[in-house]
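Supplementary material to the annual report.
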Amino acid sequence: MPSQLQLHEVTVSYDDFTAARNVSLTLDQGQIGCLLGPSGCGKTTLLRAIAGFQPVASGEIRLHGNLIACGGYSLPPEKRKVGMVFQDFALFPHLDVRRNIGFGLTDRDRGDRRQREDEMLQLVGLAGYADSWPHELSGGQQQRVALARALAPEPDILLLDEPFSSLDSELREQLAGEVRDLLKRNNVTAILVTHDQHEAFAMADRVTLLQSGEVAQSDTPYNLYHNPANEFVARFIGQGTIIAVTVGENGELRQGPITLHSAARHGQPGQALRLLIRPDDIQYTEDSALRLPVVGRSFRGAEYLYELEMPGGQRVHCLTPSHVTVPVGSKLPVAFHLQHVVVFTP
Amino acid sequence: MEIGSTVPDSVSSRPRRPVRSWRAALVLVAGVIAVPVLVIIASLALPFSGVWQHLLETVLADYVINSLLLMAGVGIGTSLLGVSGAWLTGMCEFPGRRFFGWALLLPMAMPAYIIAYTYTGLLDFTGPVQTALRTGFDLSHGDYWFPEIRSLGGAICMLSLVLYPYVYLLVRVAFVEQSTAVLEASRSLGRGPWQTLFSVALPMARPAIAAGVSLALMETLADYGTVDYFGVSVFTTGIFRTWYGFGELTTAAQLASFLLIFVFIVLALERSSRRRMRFHQGSLRKHPSRIVLRGWRGASALLVSLAMLFAGFLLPAGQLLLWAARNWRGTVDPAFFHIVQNSFLLASLASACCLLVAVFLAYGKRLFPGKLEESLVRLASIGYAVPGIVIAVGVLIPFAWLDNRIDAFARDTFGISTGLLLSGTLAALVFAYVVRFLSVSLQAVESGLTRIKPSVDESARSLGLSAGRVLQRVHLPILRGSLLTALLLVFVDVLKELPATLILRPFNFNTLAVRTYELASDERLADAATPALAIVLIGLLPVILLTRSISRGGGARA
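Predicted assembly:
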């Protein structure tokens, strides 16, 4: 079975600027993918190339096995069978909700179209709003209309361009979960663009992290977090700091007098490495002999986030229960418990 | 300006009193400005004279039918021209697109009556076109058919050619502000670029089209010069004839109130379209992508734009220039300079008065926002929809009444007759201009004022400036541009104004517009070219202002 979406070494450039370089990725039927990265990394450009609004300079894009774009060729967007949910939803202000949803159903007869519109209204839970106008709806409702409109013609793939960014942060996570359930129930292949890793993790089966137009890592959210391919990924995903360590005689990782991890097999004794430390790798341990000076802390309700100074002057983060209150300038007793050892050679 | 400087000060010390006196002043000013329109409406309550029987039997049906046909024709003409121009320059890419973006506004500088005179000179029997036809094909009179320019159809063409920029301006902004995402959504839902134009872009621009067309229709209803010259009987010519021919002022006023019904329908259309425009506005475009027209498509886009510019401006302006160049020795004499002086004096007076009243009203509304103030300002700015001839009749009646009262009073008390003290003076004329064009300056002043957020006043006050100093150091510097715009726009509008000037001017007082009208009416078209050209040249000033805002990507004046 061919994969539903296939990008093969796709390069997209504007006049004199290459926005995406040699990007490859594949999505199977029913999978939800995500293009993640900081602003300006080329993720929206790639999405627009898949939709057909941006030509590719080289490489190939195949949808359902058919070539839709390569260097010098671009199938017009209206012929591609892609559905798109825009950042600002882009509902047609001159059409009511029903006619917005039915806009892409031109090849069906009236009864058929009406039935599909009803189905879609039901699907997104807006059955009572068929006659409403876009400007009468809340942001969340508009988003669901946009989703229903894009899904109505049964596209081969659904593209979502920062679909939650114009919504309140509380609404955002709830909707992300709902949308994922809906897409999964209907076996829709989709690809999402976002700069928000929580959104990416909540929605996607497979996340492609982009750095200045190139793929930094393409993997499951779990692997992205626990097995980052390079320092950029490690820094971008989750909260973490990277500190310089050396390998001890027995293979342990240490910084100065402190042993951070004992049983690892990384590098040769005496070698200098860079180690990823996440806040949950450092635990508050009341009777620990290791005490690190507190240089900053912030209250988070259920917990405190402490900023601690290592002997080498580097700073690491540590989460403690919120009843542990150690003032800045004092020392916090901690122990290192590295679940996944992630090291990079400098 | 002392208004703004004294009031806020006293507001802080004694909040009640100034509110009341401002309100009283607002009511007074707005009330006085509304008098002419109210007089016209009130005239319906007076008994209908015998002339009405005559009007009903002979011309009234013509007035109604011709007005409707004229409106329908101009509505279709301006929307066709305006929307095509806006689509080409706003959404497509073709050679010369940037140039036409502003050049298509040039016909705005051409008053309808002047373009009518010019085309008549070009196209009538003795004009160059028919003469060339006859000599070229060896024909004589009656051998061939040629469309009669002096007709209803001709009037529709003339008005459409100079009024389409209203539609063009508003629709272009609507197109440019349409979110690209909405158009892309249509593409990804399976519709091609042309289908997207007709199913999304045009329907979304519908309120803007309606608003633009209704502005053009207001001008159409107000037009006197063109229809009079072409012999098309509509309300404005009827009102003029009733007053001049029959001397029936009351009947003229009653006729004017019927014209007002048309005006109010168009006005309602305009207001409701503008309300709907809000929902249709998107953000500015993020990925402005134009449809690139290549080959014959690009060539035809260029040709269409060029044809509009040529017919609406280049050809008539060129003809005027030619006539003026041939005849200037005979027409540019001391009398001509006297007329120019008159025009400038009148226009300066009127634009200064408009500005004063506009600043007063706009500040009143800003300092004491309320429902009453809002509706008063609206009432005072209704003049932009009311034809000049209607305002002229509405001014004539109360001024004549006032003159009679003063005269009677003077005779009773002092035993002398004062005669007609006010009517037929510049005061009546300037008042009529203020009523007609106040909204123009009000709009400019208000748009400037809304740019100054209340928090700016507050921060200036908290930095230790008195209200008067705030006005001087913050408001005036920010507003300077808007105030100048207000002055300029009214100045030019007054210079072009014909019907009210014709009725209300003091005896033997001539302006450029009146002189053009008189010369053209005497079939001295070539002599009329010099004053006409002067009007067109000065009329270019506000168009230049507009084009600057267009090239900055900005919006419309109206």
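Residues 169-185 of chain A form the longest helix (17 residues).
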